[in-house]
Specification:
The protein is mainly beta. The protein is built from seven helices and 21 strands. The chain has a domain of 318 residues. It is 11% helix and 54% strand. The strands form two sheets. Strands 1-2-3-7-8-9-10-14-15-17-18-19-20-21 form a 14-stranded antiparallel barrel.
């Protein structure tokens, strides 16, 4: 069963940089809804509360709660620590990142004589906002001694399959992997058959190290409208324009630390991919105030249609007793489309005037509904690969339930907040290896000062997530090679400044 699970997820968290995979679809479908420090401090459970800039990305009906216009800006600091275990060896890595988490402007209006009305349109709001909804910054290093296999084994098997490969065709057959190993003398043809190849590393016994660095995130520009009917029903809509920037740089190195091989010391492979995408979606929401204490909310987010563009390249260098060699791949480009899933959100809040609130939110999203469209040129290869990747998405991922809880206590001009966010695993049962199911638990806290014309809020969130990475899959007869189990701890600090006018 372990072998089956690893084979299924082999391309999930470590894929060739020039091939879109189901992991890319998952990455761009999982959202955090960052927003303001006030929202984060209360676990982002603002769907039934409103009156905060972050609601444009969650439940735009909350804009109708505003009674005055507002300008808000929220810078943030991320602290990321990763602890990876690979073949029994542990390695840690750290990363810090400053970012703009939110900036926005809300224009609110209350109709004359309608401030306390119980029927008719009381007023409304229009907002232009930017919210950070996903963070891709990370740094991971893992290293261990593999006594059974090498990445070069998979390259040789690839070239030897299907009757073999002529030497003159090797680079063109795989210019981002096996072709680079061929050009740096890490693969050699058999003396008896030049279409068959063997690697310089035949039986493993090498120190393997991977350094992964990723940068970027997803930010969403929102255009939102909301209306207040009878101070009881609040409705709103958002047109969202998210933008993706994702840059990954992976370095894979294998070293002969025990002098097992005559003509091999080490080699390294570098894969770099830059992905950019712009999309469009819509969000619709409502809040109903049952009485002065209880509010119920609901929102629906349409799928996001992304236009995506990848630029990628690889390079390899070898250190052999016979010399040092290096070779670069061509620069690849690929344009495609991605559609992410629907989201449905239900929420409730209990509010006590001059005391505070308690709120809860439930979000449903089915990650298997993501899909790629590679059908730009009707190329048969593109269509075949599109079917394969979309089938993997449907097989590996499923419905997920996310829960957000929050509370705020008021004391004079001070606000004290706490929250909890449970983001469930996106995987179907039996898929995630070593318990690395990407489920995330987040604990939040915050404090603020609120005056009539301004407010200042500070929030802190701590998250833990467990991931699995496998560079390649090779069965040497006694089993599949191991991957790395990565425990990542994320600390997020937000500081919001707001002005009412």
């Amino acid at each position: 069963m372990r072998k089956l699970i690893i084979m299924v997820i082999a391309t999930a968290l470590s894929v060739s940089s020039y091939a879109q995979s189901d992991v890319d679809a998952l990455r761009y479908s999982m959202l955090d809804f960052g927003g303001t420090a006030r929202s984060l401090g209360s676990g982002n459970a603002y769907g039934a509360l409103g009156g905060d800039m972050s609601v444009t990305s969650m439940n735009p009906a909350g804009l109708a709660i505003y009674r005055s216009s507002e300008l808000t800006i929220t810078p943030g600091l991320l602290s990321i620590n990763s602890d990876a275990t690979y073949y029994g060896q542990s390695t840690t890595d750290d990363r810090y990142h400053f970012q703009l988490n939110n900036v926005g402007l809300v224009f609110a209006n209350v109709n004359d004589g309608k401030a306390n009305a119980t029927d008719g349109w009381v007023g409304g709001a229009f907002a232009l906002t930017y919210n950070k909804v996903a963070n891709y910054n990370n740094a991971v290093t893992y290293s261990g001694f593999n006594d059974g296999s090498s990445l070069l084994n998979t390259y040789a098997d690839f070239l030897n399959s299907g009757g073999g490969t002529n030497p003159g065709d090797v680079f063109d057959k795989d210019p981002f992997g096996a072709g680079l190993a061929w050009e740096t003398y890490l693969l050699n043809p058999l003396g008896t058959d030049s279409t068959q190849y063997y690697p310089l590393i035949t039986d493993g016994n090498v120190q393997q190290t991977k350094v992964m660095q990723t940068d970027g995130g997803m930010g969403e520009f929102d255009i939102s409208f909301a209306g207040n009917y009878g101070n009881r029903l609040y409705i709103g809509a958002t047109i969202g324009i998210p933008h993706i920037r994702y840059v990954q740089s992976y370095t894979w190195k294998e070293e002969d630390i025990n002098n097992e091989y005559n003509d091999f010391n080490s080699y390294s492979l570098v894969d770099v991919t830059e992905t950019y995408g712009t999309g469009i979606n819509a969000k619709f929401g409502l809040i109903y105030r049952l009485n002065d204490y209880l509010r119920l909310g609901g929102a629906v987010h349409t799928p996001t249609l992304f236009g995506m563009s990848d630029n990628y390249y690889s390079s390899m260098s070898s250190d052999l007793n016979s010399g040092d060699y290096s070779y670069d791949s061509p620069i690849g480009e690929y344009n495609y489309e991605l559609v992410t899933p629907w989201r449905v959100i239900g929420s409730a809040a209990v509010t006590l005037k001059n005391i505070g609130f308690i709120s809860a939110e439930y979000e449903f999203v089915d990650y298997s509904e993501s899909f790629f469209n590679f059908n730009r040129t009707l190329d048969a290869g593109d269509l075949s690969y599109e079917t394969t990747v979309n089938t993997n998405i449907d097989t590996k991922y499923g419905a997920s339930s996310n829960i957000r809880l929050g509370a705020e206590l008021m004391y004079d001009v001070f606000r004290f907040r706490a929250g909890y966010i449970m983001s469930a695993t996106p995987f179907n049962d039996g898929i995630a290896a070593e318990g690395a199911d990407l489920a995330k638990n987040t604990y939040t806290a915050g404090i603020g000062i609120k005056d009539k014309s301004y407010f200042i809020d500070l929030a802190f969130a701590h998250s833990n997530i467990k991931q699995y990475d496998i560079q390649y899959v090779y069965d040497n007869g006694s089993g599949v090679n191991d991957g790395a189990v990565i425990n990542t701890s994320i600390n997020n600090f937000l500081l919001s400044f707001g002005f009412r006018f």
